[in-house]
Specification:
The protein has 420 residues and is of the alpha+beta class. It has helices at 3-18, 23-27, 30-37, 68-76, 86-89, 105-116, 119-124, 127-139, 148-153, 156-164, 172-182, 190-216, 225-231, 241-272, 275-282, 287-298, 329-332, 368-385, and strands spanning 42-45, 62-65, 81-82, 145-147, 233-234, 237-238, 303-308, 312-314, 317-319, 324-328, 386-390, 397-398, 408-410, 412-417. The strands form 5 sheets. Strands 1-2-10-7-3 form a 5-stranded mixed beta sheet, sandwiched between helices. Strands 4-14-11 form a 3-stranded antiparallel beta sheet. A two-stranded antiparallel ribbon has the order 5-6. The termini are far apart. 44% of the residues are buried.
Length: 420
């Protein structure tokens, strides 16, 4: 290959990276990921971590890591790739717990979080209430043309957060707005994003402060996650009041929006191939494999950032300490060398557990079981109540506000009620 041809190729790839924040790429990034996987990491992505504000905060140029093997390498080596996010730390956003911590503090925080995030509290105690609420939501939506993202998917995860943390149910609408702004995936102005960050922070400062005061006064308080974070103790370690506040914020921004997109993407698959409705209805045992393949192919979380602590090499490309790395779990989940025919929706893949939508290692998402429970109950309720789903993907639109999440901004459809 001539030097001119080599230079042209490099320029094309660099241009591809610079254009990753275009609305076209954000709404359908997978063709771009496929082109990038054919090359070692490329430097130059100027994107924004959660909570930062485009137009206010200045992004660092990041190496784009897209191959499964390379993404896995970043995830498995936290001693090389730090989660402490200097860009977010310098922004107006509250720092995220666990997400933005390294060992040894990460280990201590995760142990404390596990004391609060028990299967009983995030599953057993909420399943019946969650099912009853989803039944009400679906019943109110039957036989009406609606935007599923607004009427169903956008309600369930934020509503779950309200009763996980003992908040007023009607506040779920506030949580939805704040999460959307924080996760840089909606069309907010810089001023609106900053205002949402401040509102979110002060809301939980006030709620946590009151909970501490009620406990100190000997009043009876609900046994929810907020109380559990306050009371959590592991080997003599406890959370500070600020850390409790930030844990509550982390749950909302990390859980509400991504689960909303996950639920919407599940319904998108049903519109893409209507035969899935009858298949799942006839064999409910297919629901979990259906969900996992959706998490692999259409998983909402696209990428995360890491700060490089030590000189290293990724696919032959030298990466220096102090560099910034953006690694794309969504691209790894479409790596042909791991998942053949990655764009096709194929349930029953023997290696489906290798998908890394929820991360891996010390940063595997604590909320993954909760997201799966919400989605599974929703699918079962819809299958119980409905004879089918009517709609066309041609009428839908994927969000194009930011590259952090893949999901629908609008998903018009109609849930057709079963005949009595």
């Amino acid at each position: 290959m001539s030097n001119n041809a080599m230079s042209s190729t490099e320029t094309d790839i660099e241009l591809l990276v610079r254009n990753m924040l275009s609305p076209e790429c954000i709404s359908n990034p997978y063709p771009v990921y496929k082109q990038l996987r054919a090359h070692p990491p490329v430097n130059g992505l100027l994107d924004y971590p959660p909570g930062t504000v485009p137009g206010v905060d200045t992004p660092y140029p990041a190496w784009v890591v897209t191959r499964y093997e390379d993404v896995d390498y970043v995830l498995r080596n936290p001693e090389i790739f730090s989660s402490e996010d200097p860009m977010q730390a310098n922004s107006s956003a509250p720092s995220l717990m666990l997400v933005n911590h390294d060992r040894p503090r990460h280990t201590a925080l995760r142990n404390l979080a596990k004391m609060a995030f028990t299967p009983k509290r995030i599953h057993d105690d909420i399943v019946d209430r969650l099912r009853a609420d989803i039944i009400k939501i679906v019943d109110a939506s039957l036989n009406t043309k609606m935007d599923f993202m607004v009427e169903v998917a956008g309600v369930i995860p934020a509503m779950v957060m309200t009763y996980l943390m003992g908040l007023p149910r009607e506040d779920y609408k506030l949580l939805v707005r704040w999460a959307n702004a924080f996760m840089v995936s909606s069309d907010f102005t810089p001023a609106e994003r900053q205002a949402c960050n401040e509102e979110l922070f002060h809301y939980f400062v006030d709620k946590v402060e009151k909970r501490y005061a009620d406990i100190a006064a000997g009043l009876e308080v609900s046994d929810d996650l907020m109380t559990a974070f306050i009371n959590a103790e592991y080997q003599g370690d406890i959370l500070s009041k600020e850390e409790v506040t930030l844990f509550c914020i982390t749950l909302v921004v990390a859980g509400a929006e991504t689960t909303t997109y996950f639920i919407g993407n599940l319904m998108g698959v049903m519109l893409e191939d209507p035969s899935w409705f009858s298949k799942l209805n006839e064999d409910r045992g297919l629901i979990r494999p259906f969900m996992e393949e959706c998490l692999r192919r259409d998983g909402p979380p696209q990428r995360l950032f890491r700060l490089v602590l030590k000189d290293c090499e990724i696919s032959g490309q030298e990466i220096k300490a102090g560099d910034w790395v953006a690694f794309f779990m969504a691209s790894a989940n479409h790596d042909e060398s791991i998942f053949p025919e990655p764009e096709n929706f194929i349930i029953g893949r023997k290696n489906i557990t290798k998908h890394i939508t929820f991360g891996r290692g010390i940063h595997h998402c604590l909320g993954a079981p909760l997201a799966r429970v919400e989605a599974e109950i929703m699918l079962n309720v819809i299958l119980d109540k409905c004879a089918g789903v009517d709609g066309s993907l041609a009428d839908s639109r994927r969000q194009s506000g930011g590259l952090l999440a893949y999901g629908f901004s609008t998903l018009p459809l109609e849930l057709i009620a079963k005949q009595a």
